[in-house]
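Quick one:
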Amino acid sequence: MADISFAETDFNLGRKRAEGAWKLGIADLDRQRENLSRQTTRNYENLARQYKQAAPQQITQFTGRGLGRSGLFKKSMTDFALQQERDRAEVLRNMSEQQALYDVEQAGYDQALNDEIARLEQVKLKQIAADAAALKNAAPLI
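Output:
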């Protein structure tokens, strides 16, 4: 007589393993996202501090020579402010790019989990069919 399997048990164990791997991957991504957030905040704060420290020097460079009302001074201060905004935008752009990579990685984890569950479901269905056939063949013997 053919052996009868425990397809449901195998399926549930396989599903638990797949879900466990998914949870570990997602937890790792969550840690990476938290680190990215902290790093972005630090970078943003460092930029603010650098520009705050550089501003007086930028101003006295012109006012010390009596050019505080000149077009050159105004252009220099405009360029200074624009560069600060570009640097801030760069920090945020880098964060957004990294976040997008994390989103892609998470989608990969999600897809791997779904694929594994579908594969396990197929194995379970095949085993159920094999078990049913074995029972049908064994019925005359019982």
